[in-house]
Input
Amino acid sequence: MKVLVPIKRVIDYNVKVRVKADNSNVDLANVKMAINPFCEIAVEEAVRLKEAGIATEVIAVSIGNKSCQEQLRTALALGADRAIQIETDENLDSINVAKLLQKIVEEEQPQLVILGKQSIDSDNNQTGQMLAALTGMAQGTFASAVNVDGDKVNVTREVDSGLQTIALTLPAIVTTDLRLNEPRYASLPNIMKAKRKPLDVKSAADFGIDLTARTNLIKVTPPAQRKAGIIVESIDELVEKLKNEAKVIS
Amino acid sequence: MSILVFAEHDNSELKSDTLKTVAAAQAIGGDIHLLVAGHNCQAVAEAASKVNGVSKVLVADNAAYEHQLAENVSLLVTELAADYSHILATALTTGKNFMPRVAALLDVAQISDIIAVESSDTFVRPIYAGNAIATVQSLDSKKVITVRSTGFDAVATDGNAEIVAVDKVTDAGISSHVNDELSVSERPDLGAASIVISGGRGMQNGENFKLLEGIADKLGAAIGASRAAVDAGFVPNDMQVGQTGKIVAPDLYIAVGISGAIQHLAGMKDSKVIVAINKDAEAPIFQVADYGLVADLFDALPELESKL
Output
């Protein structure tokens, strides 16, 4: 089966973001960017399905300007077979991302689409579910285990109260949780090989979708700062402070 | 304006987070209806009818909704959506699962995880693991919103709403429930607890989490964990507090053996009082802690338990 893996270029997860002085957005100039950690897990899962003889081809797709080709090359170095970049400079709402991905699904007809459960920048946790709705596919979100079984896939999901396993009719959408797998590192030979793998560039405008923004980002502000705390010297002092100063225990 | 709020429940009990989501609906303003979708969920409907500020409870009681599969519930909510300007669900795993599907079926954007309401179309939500706060205006005619419960205070339960059965059955037939492996705990729910004590990598193994249990019992606290502790297999994933786990804002949060990575802080830094116990005085957790104790947790925890 063909597996499609949409990935996103985001700020590196270790970077502490700064809000721009004019409160228009966060400042991403000269900040280290990387493949979204959840997307990396999605790529890894697809590659493992290929190694297990279940997937025949793994296609990575990303939406953005030319710089997201870096992340597509990373996905290729990790084992994806080919990549598609949908070129746009716009910052798209998830619904519009899902609509573009729907077109790729129609073209490529994958049996499984694996996405990260959320991107660590917008923290929306929407795209996979929206793509499932638009394609009419079943969805297995927050997956910690994926088992393809004939024309079905069993997905174990991380839910509030523990784990839940559901069975989905293929083709289906899976979104990855952190515990699904541990992504591998790309080896140097694989990074070199990835440079020769096919990477198609398509223009978002050519899909004929109305990509008008549905939301208006009015402002971005830093979160309220907590006032500095104190270091206590002993458990006795800690318990005393919690009882009498903070009054959070009795 | 009419607002439809999806009730969070497990078919037997209405979750208290729903009371906070109703508070968000009240902040938007309008006639509020609660939707209870489940199977054999009459007790939930009764509880929902008492939620203050709700004028009507819609009950869709059918086997197709028993496990609230996204494919089925999203079709139901989409069908009901015509009568509402706003559709709200709590940003827990159920709401996060089906609401974007509703939004896409309605061809609108979703505003995820709001922590405040500015007006009927403008909302406040954290981005970048809570390191920036965005004010976002929805330009769609219908607003599909998930609500972070720590942003709102629960409404009272002294109401008396009418209960109306919804006989629509929307079974997409493309997914089915296989089984659940639920964590059983006598302790309060992590999301709702007023005190949380969490362990991190410094706990070294799952056995040592017992050191937290005596303290949790004395304080009536829930026990949480950092991702490091979950990934290392010390404790199950549903105990994870953080950007990708549970978001908590208790009165007191005690972080033990947790360094305080950005992703963990995202899940707890709105706690009223934060205590950190860590042997590394340089750990970033001390920058957000109201009270820090630099000590070996294996000495500190037994002593703390004995002093409570």
